[in-house]
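FYI - complex with C2E, inputs then prediction.
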Amino acid sequence: MKSYRPDFDDVATSDEGDLTQSLRRLVVSDEDMQPTEDLQPTAMTALLFCRDASARKWGPRWLTQFGFETILRTDANDIASHIRTSDADVILVEAGFRDEDGTPLYGSLINAVDVSAPILVLCPSTKDVSAALDAGAFDVVRKPYEWRLIAARTKRVVQAHLVNRELDNAKVAASQAIDLADSARQRLRSRESFEPLTGLPNKSRFGDLIKRGMNAVTRDGNVLAVFVIGFARFRLVIEAMGQERADLLLTEIGYKLNACLKGPRDPAEGAKGLWTAAAASLDGPRFGVMLTCSGQGNDLADMQQRLLSTLSQPVQVASQIVHLSACVGVALYPQDADEAGRLLQRAENAMRDAQSHGGGFRHYCEQSDAAAAGKLRMEHMLHEALDNDELHIAYQPISDTATGRLVGAEALLRWPQGDGSFISPSEFAPVAEESGLMIRLGKFVLDGACRQFDEWRRAGTTLPRMCVNVSKVQLTSSDFVKTVAEVLERYGMDATSLELEISERGVLSGAQDIIDRLHELRALGVRLSIDDFGTGDSAIVYLKELPVDCLKIDRSYIGGMIDDKKDAAIVSAMVTLGQRMDLTVIAEGVETEEQLSLLRQLDCDLFQGFIVSRPVPADKFMVFLENLA
Ligand code: C2E
Ligand code: CA
Ligand code: CA
């Protein structure tokens, strides 16, 4: 490429400065002038404002050589409009240009908010140089103007300006990054302190609040109460509603709790000493409330009442109205514990105590600890027993009252202990229900009993019916019907040979989803029986709608019917009721000949009890089966 070679003799007109003299001697070779990559013309624009003849001639040439598109203006009036319409990368202006009011043009340009290009001032004198630098010029050039150097310098000015701008951008980005990091940290801190579902302080923050409360009441000689709030059978709610709705339910309860603490109070309460109250979301479906009070008068009782009345109101989730049974445990500082973690744990133990009594309010006492620890231990051991296949099924014969003939067997869970005893299912079933283990236990019994039924059949002895107990937790589980169908299929068992026993206690409350499930089971062909009939308070009301085949009179009535006329009358009425409704009636817990003969007189269909046999392991049950043949 042909290089552009200016004639240096023409360049400078002034004799000022040694630099210029030395520049005069500078020999620019062709090679030097080859536009390097660096000097390749780019889309950079330079605005050049000058009147100096030599500058007008050489300025544009050299600027072009250094890759600038150069716009030359000599008239001050022209300049303003140019600055605003052209997107210049650099402005070179002679110090002599003035505004209408006489101030140097470069000053106005430097101060103009809409001019971002760097300003390079061409200074005829040393005085101009210092004035331009004072005004904030990006760079200055002194006369005599050596345009090759000026162009090179202009390019560096643009580059430096770009670098500065990038630095500024980087600074902005860095400060934005710092802001972002700050807000992320804040979010994290809030996630660490608050439960996302309810927005209430979480367990760890609640612990801090308790500590602070403890410090305050130590100073003031007051009392700090920690309440833990749980719900009876919340697992059933989750099973019935699904996790998502159960979460909504908890959110709603959290909101109500908070509102109950923050809501308007009796103005006299302040005087009574009710000062600080805070609600928190603990792990799972549990809430905490902390309260500092004088501990005298009715402060605590008032708060207790307030909590229970808030929690006893039905909660609406979507279109569903849910009635919950709240369980509240309370522990006090300094009486019950002197450390925040222990105080909370003790309130929680008291709450568990309330839970095992079906709801209500419980103050911490030593027994709460023992009961909670016992439950935890049992839950752990039960898990291990299931994993290690330690659980067995025992079978108790069910016989025809009139003929004494075997008509079926009831499968009963057995948890044998090392010493030959076993823990009763009545003891571990509630723990299994609370911990969710009941679903697994239930499947174990259903599968085991049906497999045994099949084995006996293969051995040539056909038992007419196998009865299996079903817990409410199983009945609320949506895939229970499927589980039953699969088991029947697995062992090729006729559905009518399986009878599912559903306890009247607590289960048959008329909840529509349970009634629906019973109909589905009935549609499969399995028989349904109401166990412990007479102990709940509702089955008789629903008897018309429930698709049941059988009533099992609770053994408490059978045990009492010889000595207590009322029990005898109730048994008689139940037998009649069952017969009128075409239901089979079974008496359970028959221990004596007297009981059996009375049942015969009453025309009770079937019976079971120690009089025939205690529940026995499968191999021992063979004796009864052999009599069948
Ligand atoms: P349940 O269903 O009412 O079972 C009858 C209980 O009465 C059994 O107690 C049985 O051993 C006992 N029993 C039978 N005949 C007599 C008698 O003549 N006298 C006396 N005093 N008791 C008699 P067990 O096996 O301790 O079971 C207690 C409860 O545990 C059962 O009451 C049932 O509700 C529950 N359960 C047992 N096995 C299972 C199971 O596999 N699943 C479920 N969900 N619950 C079970
Ligand atoms: Ca039963
Ligand atoms: Ca029973």
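The radius of gyration is 46 Å. The mean pLDDT is 83.
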